[in-house]
Amino acid sequence: MLETLSGVLEAGLETPVYGMNYGSVGFLMNPTDEENLPERLWHAQAATLHPLRMNATTVRGEHFEALALNDVYLFRQTRQAAKLRIDVDGLVRLPELICDGALLATPAGSTAYNLSAHGPIVPLSGNLLPLTPICAFRPRRWRGALLPSSAEVSFTVLEQDKRPVAAVADSMEIREVAHVSVREDRSQSVTVLFDPGQTLSERIASEQFNA
Q1: 3-class SS letters over 104-161
Q2: Count of structural domains within the chain
Q3: Are both 168 and 203 inside the same structural domain?
Q4: Residue 59 above 60 pLDDT?
């Protein structure tokens, strides 16, 4: 589903996407039922998603750009923990985070990897982006932050030679990054369709009350 949505974004299409779950997870999918499909499409409710835009620079000076509808995350490539500096809107907010990694999620992606990393679930209408550490060692008690959707988050990899780090934007992975900046790109959007009563906003709300 993410690959399809990414393809729609890259092609600049305005075509809504309706997915059916033939697998096991499918948070962005609808129940598998091909009966009365035209009628279901007619009554489907739309949700507009804005992606994150990642700009990454490797230790060799290569530059990469990618869009992510779920999240952008950094993670250690070896047995050594990663050391990251985190800036928000040009201000150093965390001089050194020793961790397995860190991620910035969209509201739609807040129920995915972000939730598994004990990050908060964010409503679609909240205009917030969860910034979540992955297995933080120091500062041990830092649990992340909720940032306005207008924020630009920059990750700088410290001790790059000793502690190599990779960055991932949905399905695109960049190895040995030195610096990664992430922001929400409001100029880009994709529309996802859901059956009545099973909208993305409702699913996110229900997820907050699951044990």
Answers
A1: EECCHHHHCHHHHCCCCCCCHHHCEEEEEEECCCECCCCCCEEEECCCEEEEEEECCC
A2: 2
A3: no
A4: yes
